[in-house]
Amino acid sequence: MNIDDSIVQAYLAGRICKDHWIFNLHAFNEPDSRNRQDVEKLSARIKENILSFTPQKDKEIKLLFPDFYEIRAHVSVILCVGLHQPYDAMVRSYNGREFIIFDLINIGNDVDTSTINGLLLHEILHVCLHEKYASEDNVPFLDKMDYLVFDEGFAHALAYFEHFPNFKYDSLAEERYLKSLEMLERALLETNSEKQEEYLVMANTGNYWDKFGSICGKMYLLKNMDKIVEIYNDGPRNFCKRICNDTRG
Ligand SMILES: [Zn+2]
């Protein structure tokens, strides 16, 4: 993995670096200079993690993404400061290439190694999935929601499985799944375009269990791990409908 830490280096040297292309996508939020020591320490830890990271339970990952290790070897990671909350880890494309971006202030300096590895795996999985299924901007609301739930579902489910290989789909999981499914169903019925945009944001932001799109996709896939290859090959089209039909009967 290539690491670009030029924004962090500039910040640590007391310079402001807001010309980077990521601040054309996301408004620059001047980082507090009091975070320098923490950022310096976290930057060293994250670099170490990135260079040594390899998933332990990679059976499903390799089934879906036979090129996973090649993609991991070539992907670029940008370490930065200066994004607004809640942006801590994400994938963005620039000039036809995808980049994993971590904001070292927004991640928080108390983040542990297993969380960093989880975030890293989650973002690499997005890059892998986007190679087969690229996102499109100018498509109808339902297509956007299908893509979001599919993309986040796979990245969440596989990264989760890596850390909790003994996961059992129990009544608490079912309760959380049904709660997010209700929200998803409400969103799918929305016809007002402004509210549709709000739903697309809500589907993947805020408190963990409130990210109804991500949770719905994740739980559905964890529930159907035995069919995960088939579901992946069917692609994002009508994924939400598939979730609703399979669950509601
Ligand atoms: Zn994600």
Question: Any key phrases for this structure?
Answer:
59% helix; four-stranded mixed β-sheet; 249 residues; alpha/beta; 4 strands; 2 domains; single chain; 8% strand
Task: Provide an overview of this structure.
Helix content is 59%, strand content 8%. It has 249 residues and is of the alpha/beta class. It has two domains: 2-132, no CATH class; 141-248, no CATH class. A four-stranded mixed beta sheet has the order 1-2-4-3. β3 and β4 form a beta hairpin. α7 crosses α8 (141-163), α8 packs across α11 (212-223) and α9 (171-189) crosses α11. The protein is globular. Bound molecules: zinc ion. The site of zinc ion has 4 residues, from α7 and α8. Zinc ion binds next to α7 and α8.
Q: What is the overall pLDDT average?
A: 94
Distance between the ends: 44 Å
Low-confidence stretches: none
Query: How many domain regions?
Result: 2
Shape summary: globular
Q: Report the radius of gyration as a whole number of Å.
A: 18 Å
Structural class: alpha/beta
Number of strands: 4
Specify the biggest β-sheet. Answer: 4 strands, mixed
Biggest sheet: strands side by side, in what order?
1-2-4-3
Total number of helices: 13
Helix content: 55-70%
